[in-house]
Amino acid sequence: MITLLGWLFSALLVLIVPPVLVLFAQVLLACLPARSRSSTPGPRPRVAVLVPAHNESSLIVATLNSIQPQLVEGDRLLVVADNCSDDTAALARAAGAEVVERSNEQQRGKGYALDFGVRHLASDAPEVMIIVDADSLLSEGSILRLALCCIDSGRPTQALYLMHAPAGSGLKVQLAEFAWCVKNRVRPQGWARLGLPCSLMGSGMAFVWKDLALIDLASGHIVEDLKMGLDFCRSGKPPLFCRDALVTSYFPRSDEGLSTQRKRWEHGHLGVILGDAPKLMIEAITRGNGSLLAMTLDLLVPPLALLTLALGATFALSWLVFLLGGALAPALIASIGMVLLAGTVLLAWSRFGREIIAFSTLMYAPFYALKKIPLYIGFVLKRQVEWVRSKRDDN
């Protein structure tokens, strides 16, 4: 029996340790000095900025105000007011945006809104389309940098997309901001050092217009951005990371909003890992698609809290099995994995997270991970598969 348990934990480590190694490689690479870029960009392409919005009256004007000064003659700014029951459409029109309204209670989700907006833009198509969420702010010059990077590379391009904790937020939101920085800044920056692609992140995404025909946008998938990036990569268009373009947003203040947002993101990510990762890995290897292999390896890295919980549980149980008379190898491998994960997180914090959280806050991370156990149990018992908007602070 003990021997059987030893083999079982060995099998678990085969699944858990590779994501830790990928995470370590990405963080280490991200810490290397930045490469100088001497290429001369071409002329600025004609741009359309598409903003899907579902009941975003409290935020839409600020978003549009961050976009409009960056547009030039011939550009378009389109808001898709999707199944809205508030005055999002009216506010967007008053702010100077072109607005179309969509109402379809059976087809809910960002993907359907994007498809609706693309079909509207087709009558006067741009060279590059940029998607910006209605709760995001674009830093100055980001439209230009995204558009040039996209048109010059001929690939989908993802801006650096960061989410911040509102002032006065508790420890869990501060830790969430750090985890988001690792996921959306550190890891893609590390992969980019090797010329490898990044995942699409939902806001600050730029596409060559003609390439949109390669994928099907109309979807209710709860992590449609992740799916889009993989679909483009499979079509020979691996997404490119553009860290010089910056998009920012804030986590919801309410516990309900945070819970809804976190559940959608993490259940969606885990669902893609279980449902798509094996076939993506096989496809990448059989077709010799290195970009798809890199994106699949990145996909296999679960949320930091889950990775910590899984490795910690395996570490404790493998040593228990050893003390009861089992094999030593699984316990040693689990120990190495724990040290490597802890070192990776500390390295990421030291290089990128000092301005986000204090070291004392980082020490709270294991307890934060434990508090997320019900979220992962919920994935097993009742996985979220439908898109649900995160509740804002005022609605």
TrEMBL record:
Pfam families associated with the record: Glyco_tranf_2_3
Keyword field contains RNA-binding: no
Lipid biosynthesis recorded as keyword: no
TM helices/strands, residue ranges: 304-324, 331-350, 356-381
CDD domains per UniProt: EpsO_like
InterPro entries reported in the protein's UniProt record: Nucleotide-diphossugar_trans (IPR029044)
Keyword terms: Glycosyltransferase, Membrane, Transferase, Transmembrane, Transmembrane helix
Family: Belongs to the glycosyltransferase 2 family.
Protein name listed in UniProt: Glycosyltransferase family 2 protein
